[in-house]
Amino acid sequence: MKKTKTASAATFLLLLVVLACYLSPLLIMVFGSFKSYSEIMSQVLDVPQRFSLDNFRNVFTSMNYPKSLWNTLLVTTIGVAGIVVISSLAGYKLSRVKTRYSYILFLFCIMPMMIPFQSFMITLVKLAKQLGLLGNLYGLGVIYWGLGAPLSIFLYHGFVKGIPHELEECAMLDGCSSLRMFISVIFPMLRPVTASVVVVNAMWIWNDFLLPLLTISNNDSIKTLQLAAYGFMGQYKMEWQNIMAGAIMIIIPALIVYLIFQKNIVKGMVAGAVKG
Amino acid sequence: MNQARKKKLSHTIEFLGFTMPAAFAILLFVGIPFLMCIFYSFRKWNGIQRASTFIGFQNYVRAFTDDPTFGQSIRYTLIYALFTVIFINIIALVLSVVLEQSDAFGKGFFRAAFYIPNIISLIIIGFTWKFIFSRAFEAMQESTGAAMFGWSWLGQPKLAVFSTVLVTVWQALGFYMLIYIAGLQSVPEDVIEAATIDGAGRVRRFFSVIFPLIIPSVTVCTFYSIANSLKMFELIFTLTGGGPGTATTSVALDIYNTAFNSNQYGYGSSKSVILFAMVAVITILQVTVFKKKEIEA
């Protein structure tokens, strides 16, 4: 439908107004992070008088920011890398082998998508303790493998269906072992879906709070950003200027990643949602 | 013969080699804990001692007959989920339809901008909105004089329930818009054109042509919003802490409190199983009903 220019300009303006209202809480947060205590209490909505970085400096040390950032990066990397490896292997094989057992195993692998995490968190914590996975970042990362694999296997499984068999047959004739073939022929072809799997799982693990709370919050020396945020925001109670600054410092890494990989995130989220 | 058997064996080993790492991880971190939860839901267990005693259905009976907090949390969760699902889907759909009218640049820009709250963790969203509801609203009341900003948004039980819905919708909207926009883009142009030629106005076009064709997106969005709202934990944990009183205590939060604050692991396990059943029954019902309404373009 051809719209007149004025009509589409009007929609644009209307959307802009809606968006401004929609994002205003975030703007208040950004303004707040630069204000002093007395300023944030007396002039909540105003633009800050001066853009001082004092709050950020406070929070940087009290939250032990570099350490927490590193911990979060570590957990996310371990989690995502493991999920990609085990899910691509399994998703590929389960899609290619068409036997009854393979189908049953596939169902077993994707069924956990229907089970809410809170339905098994109590016993998961107990089990993790017995396995020695509590209280350390590696253990936390490894637990994500099992939680993230179902959706990822589902995505890989669907994608592999669209890849022709001929390539594998050629590689087989060349005497490639099946693992070699997977690594050098198949995995590179899975790139689009791998990008989605990485994005979906990275955003989830980065922002996850409940599992770290249950597994590593006893150990004060290791904290993820979300745990540090929680601890520190509780500790500051009503010192909103520090809380706002801390919030921004936690959002910024995710925001940068989001702006860089925006296209992939959109694709990944839609793929994850529509197929899931 | 021997050759064939050997080949079959090597295929089996290869199959297991590829699939077992994932299957094992899922079994270990989801399957076994979930089965353990069902097992312990029939037992009295404080989580500290190894020992637990079998008590039959007592935990379940207690949850439904002798636990006002749990009853309240189920009521709250259902109300919260109902309103969240309705608001999210209507607002996301309306915004997506309006967005479809704008040009390619506008579409990309707004879609990305509306998604921003979604990349922020719920913990931080909770704290931020606590500030908005208290300090920012107070300031708004002073400057505008509007009475609604003076209400006790987190302190008055009914209003607090609404506040949790409001913040959830605000945070999640961008995600559902992504799905609706993708759905709207898949509606074939010629169908819409044909309807226009037949004299259908914009509203008529939407309800008679476009909407029936995007029901798959509606199914997905409804499914996700139901599943996510029934298990909401983090936002409530920081925004209201479940209060005032237990007005906004969700089932997930109640499970957490039962197990990790009052050390009633067995009892908490039975509540976990109830949560699972709740989510399973409601989502299966929803998907069955919605799938029947889907049509091919």
TrEMBL record, chain A:
UniProt-listed PROSITE patterns: ABC_TM1, PROKAR_LIPOPROTEIN
Localization per record: Cell membrane
Mode of membrane association: Multi-pass membrane protein
Protein origin, superkingdom: Bacteria
GO biological process annotation, one example: transmembrane transport
Pfam families referenced in this protein's UniProt entry, alphabetically: BPD_transp_1 (PF00528)
Keyword Cell membrane annotated: yes
Main location: membrane
Segments forming domain ABC transmembrane type-1: 69-261
Keyword Cell membrane set for record: yes
GO cellular component annotations of the record: plasma membrane
TM annotation in the entry: 12-34, 69-92, 104-125, 137-160, 181-206, 243-261
Keywords from the UniProt entry: Cell membrane, Membrane, Transmembrane, Transmembrane helix, Transport
Similarity comment text for this entry: Belongs to the binding-protein-dependent transport system permease family.
The protein's name in its UniProt record: Carbohydrate ABC transporter permease
Taxon lineage: Bacteria, Bacillati, Bacillota, Clostridia, Eubacteriales
TrEMBL record, chain B:
Predominant location: membrane
CDD domains on file: TM_PBP2
GO CC annotation: plasma membrane
UniProt keyword list: Cell membrane, Membrane, Transmembrane, Transmembrane helix, Transport
Topological relation to the membrane, as annotated: Multi-pass membrane protein
Coiled-coil ranges from the UniProt annotation: none
Family annotation (InterPro entries): ABC_transporter_permease, MetI-like, MetI-like_sf
Residue ranges occupied by any ABC transmembrane type-1 domain in the UniProt entry: 74-286
Transmembrane segments: 21-42, 78-100, 112-132, 159-184, 205-227, 272-290
Pfam families, per database record: BPD_transp_1 (PF00528)
Annotated compartments: Cell membrane
PROSITE patterns (alphabetical): ABC_TM1 (PS50928)
GO BP terms in the entry: transmembrane transport
Similarity comment: Belongs to the binding-protein-dependent transport system permease family.
The protein's name: L-arabinose transport system permease protein AraP
